Amino acid sequence: MGLAEDVAQGLTSKTKYILSRYFYDARGDQLFQEIMKMPEYYLTNCEYEIFSTKGADILKAFSNESKPFDLVEFGAGDGTKTRILLKRLLENQANFRYIPIDISGDVLENLKADLSKEIPELEVRPENAEYFNALEKIRSESDRPKLILFIGSSIGNFREEVIKKFLDELFEKMNTGDQILIGYDLMKDPNVILRAYNDSSGITRAFNLNVLKRINRELHADFNLEAFEHYPFYDPESGNAKSYLVSLKRQTVFLKSLELKVDFEVGEVIHTEISRKFKVADIERYFSNSGFQTVEHFYDCKHYFVDTLAKKP
User: How much is the pTM?
Assistant: First the structure.
């Protein structure tokens, strides 16, 4: 489904929601780049540290007998963290081409242009598509071994059953010997986690509210952004960090393109995002249940974050 169908379904559900994928228009992309640079948003620095210090170890663990391989990244974004890994792999004489996949064509164009200046010797072949559609295309065009990146704890945006479905489908579309490196945000001090989704400068608030701006623009809706507030919540028992937009008054929103009126009570919420935090035992269980073999865990110095390498045996 597209934006119109997904928004109609989400806003007419018993508990209203908007899928987090719709955060990422041009302004959303820009705001998320700002989020990743916030001091409170520890995830970026943790993974940057892992790639800076463990790049050679990741390549060794991937070990494909020095054959050329494809480094395929799901949801590449602006490649802030990936660039350091690309450089470390090249420093260690890895023979590969980089295939970033993203649903944002603007982001991919900028990434390719930046990399051509920063790492001119790197072969870059962007794919503007959904993850699995792009992966099927890549696999049909090349029999090179694949190292797939899904970093930034993007997997934390998935519910438990969606993680299972994602890993099952990934396993099916990978070849024997292909590997996946997935970034997971680990459970830790709840206050550290909550600050990452409620920064003092209000960038995460703007990011959350921007999805309403997008709906106003693309579906000709009349959301009053001043009538909604950003509300983050973290449950340390389940590891679920959630973001909501809370209606500050009783109101009706009209989405002209859908010919849809949506009523809100005071305090009613729209659920916009989930960002799960994990235990290592759960990570290994997810991989095992989908047929993968866990190869190695790579941690930052505080053990706030882990990038786990797994293989299709």
Answer: 0.89
